Every structure is written in C-alpha cells, then in structure tokens.
Amino acid sequence: MIYDFGMPAPLARVVEMLASLPGVGPKTALRLGLNLLSRPAADTVALAEALARLHEQVGFCENCGCFAEQTVCHFCNDVRRDAQTVCLVEQPVDVLMMERGHGFRGHYHVLHGRLSPVDGLGPEQLNLAALDKRVASGLKELILATSATVDGEATAHYLARRFTSSGVKITRIARGVPEGGELEYLDEHTLSRALDQRVSWDATSI
Amino acid sequence: MIYDFGMPAPLARVVEMLASLPGVGPKTALRLGLNLLSRPAADTVALAEALARLHEQVGFCENCGCFAEQTVCHFCNDVRRDAQTVCLVEQPVDVLMMERGHGFRGHYHVLHGRLSPVDGLGPEQLNLAALDKRVASGLKELILATSATVDGEATAHYLARRFTSSGVKITRIARGVPEGGELEYLDEHTLSRALDQRVSWDATSI
C-alpha cells in the first residue's frame, strides 16, 4: 500500500483492490475510493451488489461461448438469426463490438483465446469441440473474424485448414483502410494489403 | 448505455455504474467490467464486500473532521501528537497527503470545503463550530494549509481574521519552488512569490 498512513483500513482495502484493475494506478484508485466514499452510501452499495452478482448471473453459452445469462445465449435463441452462418471471434467482447454495427444477422462462435505457442495456448485450450460439432452438423459459411495480429492470423490459418475438407465455405473479414482513415497516417502493411485486395467499384457501393 | 447490444444485463449494470466514476468513460468502464468478469469470482465478490462496508465503516472524526473508523480519529486519539498545534486543511484527503511527509506531529482540522461564494459555500457550510471550540480551549498554533488557489487563499484570509483576537499564533504553509522544480518551467507568480518570501540560508538547511 502506498497511502496507508492515516487512511482508515476499510478505505485502504477498497483502494488496494481498485488498484489491481487494468489501467488503474494507486493515484487513480485513491481518487475512485474517495469518490465512492463521498457519494451517497446507496450508490456505493448498489455498485457492491451489482458486482457481487456479476459472476453468478453472467456465464457463457454452452453452444457458442458468448456471454449468456442462461445456458444458451440470446443469439443462439433468436430464431430470426441465420444459424447456418457463423462468425468466429476470439473473445466474448468481440461479439459486443460486432453487434455495434447492427449488420450481421448470423450466429457467433467464441474461441476464448487464440493460438499462441509462446503462451502455451494450443488448439486444445480453445473452444473447438463445440465448433467441430457445429461444422459437422452442416454450416453454410464460417467467417473467420480473429484479430489482424500474427497470432490471430495464425489461428485463422489453422482453422481454415482444420475445416477445409468439411465442405463449409470459409471466409475471412476484410482488411484495409479503416473508415475515416487518411492514407497519410496509415502504416505501409495496411496500405499494401488494401491495394492487393482491392474490390470492383460496384462492390463498394453497398 | 452505449454497449447495450448483446451485453448481458448484469454486466451492463456494472459497466454503467463504473462509468459514473470520475475519469472513467464508457470504454474504460467496459474494460473494467470485462476484467472483473474474467478474473476469479472470489476477487470480484471481495471487492463487492469491501464496497458494501465502506460507508458504514468509515465516517468522520467528530472532533477534527478527519476520516475515522470510530467517533474520534486515530490522530486525535494519539497522545504522542501535539494537540496544541492544529493544521487546518480543506478535505480529508489533504490529511493523507500531509501524512505522507511523516514530518507533522500535531493534530488536524478538516473544513470539508472552502469559501466559494460562486458555489454558495459560506462559513456556515464549513466545519467551523468545532474549530471555534478548539481555538477557544487554547491552541498554541493554527497552521492554515488551505490550497494555494483563489478560494483557498480567501478562506485562509477569512480564518486569520476570525481568530486574530483569540491569541492563537496563526501561520500559513510556505509557497515557493516545489522540490525538484526547474526555474525554467515555473510560472511567474510562483517564482515572484518564492523571491519575495526568501528565507535566510541557515533556515533552509534543516
């Protein structure tokens, strides 16, 4: 503890735990702790209750690995969504990001990680058994939406190879210039990829 | 809510409450919420319990207004401290900052604010009744450690006037060049104040 002098133990405890959160240093933790102490007690108690229930109320869908409040998530339960088109992502949070666009109406599959030999993460550490079953049951398309990093790319390659003989159509999300991106500030890899994978003008006016 | 799409309600609730903390925007709140969900449940429950007890366990000393776990704080209870020398500060957190130096061995008095006509804060909004009593009981020295802002300075002036006839010695914490401060980067007000209030060389070699 950095601020143990004269700080009441209950406050010190809260500050110490807050300081263990990502991006929260001891100074920020102290500021948050003091704020939680200065606001109405009911506010802080409400946050405490929400945190206490977080783990017991939020789990993962046994089918696709998304966040779920029941055994199956609301994507898998939604009959208006196309169960034959599955978008594969690395983390549950990636699903939230995809949904922001409101464009995709298929199902998801969350790997809960990516291949990373350095960190000892191989295929057996990923959520693949459920995916094998889904592919075997006859999917139309599997969209590989792993990240555009070395590990994400390697994971996509591995999965493409794994399911190549299954007959499912395998696609990879496009990479190129981000919306609003100025060429001036773009790295050369993105730019050369955007040039290589240029599409016919008609296809861009969707 | 910014991320309501596909996010389980219990997580959305936590994220929304975290986003109300100072310096925590929706993106940081989401990152913190996801971190709290991904770490062991016991960690998050421990934070929840610490928060639930924070307000009920931490109050203010009825004598000086510092943070206190009982009715009187551990500064006021410490017989090795000089009860005749009182350092007056604006906020409870200022006491923690003073104590970091380990140099002061007197008591404190927390105003819980400062005079600020713009915000409708006058003397009656401050913790002054208890201070009147302490001064009347015969203090040796009252150190005005309000902040070096316009409002903090005005508050110090007001208090100096209020207690001028009480016989207590009234002092103000020194202002000048901060430790490690390069003159090059210092504002002109601080520098001219440091020059005006220069002290004899002997006094600096403490």
UniProtKB/TrEMBL annotation, chains A, B:
Signal peptide: none annotated. One of its GO terms (molecular function) is DNA binding. InterPro entries: DNA_Rcmb_RecR, Rcmb_RecR, Rcmb_RecR_Znf, TOPRIM_dom, TOPRIM_RecR. PROSITE patterns: RECR (PS01300), TOPRIM (PS50880). It holds the Pfam family RecR_C. A zinc finger (C4-type) spans 61-76. The keyword DNA repair applies. Residues 84-178 form the Toprim domain. The keyword Electron transport does not apply. GO terms for biological process: DNA recombination; DNA repair. Keywords: DNA damage, DNA recombination, DNA repair, Metal-binding, Zinc, Zinc-finger. May play a role in DNA repair. It seems to be involved in an RecBC-independent recombinational process of DNA repair. It may act with RecF and RecO. Belongs to the RecR family. This is Recombination protein RecR. It comes from Mariprofundus micogutta. The gene is recR.
